[in-house]
Amino acid sequence: MDPEALPGVVVMGAAGRMGRMLARAVLDSPEARLAGAVVRPGHDWVGRDIGTLIGQGPAGVAVTDSPLDALAGAQAVLDFTGPATTVEMADLCAQARAVHVIGTTGLSEEDLRRLSLAARHAALVRAGNMSLGVNLLAGLTRRVAEALGTQWDIEIVEAHHAGKADAPSGTALMLGEAAAEGRGQSLPQVAARGRDGITGPRTPGSIGFAAVRGGDIVGEHDVIFAGQGERVVLRHMATDRMIFARGALRAALWGQGRPPGEYDMTDVLGL
């Protein structure tokens, strides 16, 4: 197939750890072409070949700090940046009718409202975690929570590298949403975070979160169902960030030709 006939994919935050992996995933794929690589304004990568910079050899794609220029002629955007950048990019994707795949975490309610508005005009795929295993874990969490009910306490423990800026992780919140949905609850109303000091007994029916930060931990998530005399623990451990990059690219390809709307990885994976 003519490479120019393949869906063009733009990678946001291409100089970051996740951005470089996303660029590698696209360059390695026979189903997509790298149409653009975007970095923050004034970055010293601007104007240089992204393939050379990430050790893949010349790719013929110069790094830019202009998302609008990168999006010209592209059909999808992979975005694991920050909330402000993601919201801005959502508006551009809506105008270009490009699939916007979002792995950004730490989004506020206002950010999510803006994304929903953008999704009226283009397909938007957002997930706290793009891996197949984690999305299976979310499905299991929902079913176990539904089966066990509020008589069992739920605690979600997540661990990530020392540089992660937000807590709980987007994946932990996704698992919390799955647990709350299984019980017929609203997560904001039952979430318990940041316990410290004399907190008193645990509130029945609450869903607790705990965050660990250290070293180079890629991502570990435990969903603990604690009952009287027994516990059920569901666990996922990520050892290679490429699982997220491959999942994001799969979402971008899946989104081609989809009608405008908000989707997640359960849609992409048919779960």
Kindly give the count of domains. Answer: 2
Strand content: 15-25%
Overall mean pLDDT stands at 95
Output the CATH class name of the largest domain.
Answer: Alpha Beta
Q: Which overall shape is indicated by the principal axes computed on the Cα atoms?
A: elongated
- How far apart, in Å, are the first and last alpha carbons? 31 Å
State the strand order across the main sheet: 3-2-1-4-5-6-12
CATH fold title of the largest domain: Rossmann fold
Q: Which structural class should the secondary elements be placed in? A: alpha/beta
* Discrete helix count: 10
CATH architecture of the largest domain: 3-Layer(aba) Sandwich
> What's the main sheet like?
7 strands, parallel
Radius of gyration: 20 Å
How many extended strands?
Answer: 12
Percent helix range: 25-40%
> pLDDT below 50 for ≥5 consecutive residues: which ranges?
none
Note the quaternary state here. Answer: single chain
User: Please, what is the CATH homologous superfamily of the largest domain?
Assistant: NAD(P)-binding Rossmann-like Domain
Secondary-structure element sequence?
Answer: EHEHEHEHEHEHEHHEEEEHEH
What would a concise description of this structure say?
The protein is of the alpha/beta class and 271 residues long.
Can you give a write-up of this model?
The protein is α/β, with parallel strands linked by helices and 271 residues long. The chain folds into two domains: 152 residues, Rossmann fold (3-Layer(aba) Sandwich); 107 residues, Dihydrodipicolinate Reductase, domain 2, CATH 3.30.360.10. It is 36% helix and 23% strand. The chain has ten helices and twelve strands. The strands form two sheets. A seven-stranded parallel sheet has the order 3-2-1-4-5-6-12, sandwiched between helices. Strands 8-9-7-10-11 form a five-stranded mixed sheet. Helix 4 links the parallel strand 4 and strand 5. The two termini are 31 Å apart. The mean pLDDT is 95.
